[in-house]
Write a structure and sequence with these properties.
The structure is a single chain. With 174 residues, the protein is mainly alpha-helical. It has 2 domains: 75 residues, RNA polymerase sigma factor, region 2, helix turn helix motif (Rna Polymerase Sigma Factor, Chain: A, Orthogonal Bundle); 66 residues, Orthogonal Bundle (Arc Repressor Mutant, subunit A). 71% of the residues lie in helices and 0% in strands. The protein has 7 helices and no strands. Helix 3 packs across helix 6, helix 5 crosses helix 7 and helix 6 packs across helix 7. The protein is elongated, with a radius of gyration of 17 Å.
């Protein structure tokens, strides 16, 4: 394929998906500058390996590249925590500042607990429940079967609930 066509396609993908990929990587490592570097490397790799793209869902393909780069980074650096104190504020119609403060504390508890469960559980919870990928898309990103995504999501949510309960969080929606 013509290099100019590939560049155009990668630029379009960057425009469409860079914010989501950046947030995903940032969820994983909690380092803004490194997340930007991994984002950039994701699109460099996508360009360099475009011939391996087989027409699957481009968003899933890009997230898989970003995930692999992030895992490589984590393996080399081994940060103590991946998700501490970061999550965009949930949209809330509550106007009471006390309720908003409690909501932010709840988010913090959830993400601190997420940090304590197995990495594979955390990955699938982020993709399915936070980034709202489908089971098929999550399977493509993780390189798993759809059944493995379902099983790990179920186990991950159970582990997250158990961790939250240890911290004294009682919410029937988890």
């Amino acid at each position: 394929m013509d290099q100019d066509i590939i560049k155009k396609k990668i630029n379009d993908w960057y425009y469409d998906y860079s914010n989501d990929i950046f947030r995903y990587v940032f969820f994983m490592i909690s380092e803004r500058d490194q997340a930007k570097d991994i984002l950039q490397e994701t699109f460099i790799r996508a360009f360099a390996n475009y011939e391996t793209f087989d027409g699957e869902n481009e968003k899933s393909w890009l997230f898989r590249i970003a995930r692999n780069l992030t895992i490589d980074y984590i393996r080399t650096k081994k940060p103590i925590s991946y998700l501490l104190d970061f999550f965009p504020t949930l949209k809330s119609t509550e106007k009471n500042p006390e309720q908003i403060t409690m909501l932010n504390e709840t988010e913090r508890q959830i993400y601190n607990s997420l940090n304590k469960i197995k990495h594979q559980y955390r990955d699938v919870i982020i993709l399915r429940k936070i980034k709202e990928f489908s089971i098929v898309e999550s399977a493509q990103i993780l390189g798993w079967t759809e059944n493995k995504v379902k099983v790990n999501l179920f186990r991950g949510m159970k582990a997250l609930k158990k961790e939250l309960e240890k911290e004294g969080f009682n919410n029937e929606t988890i």
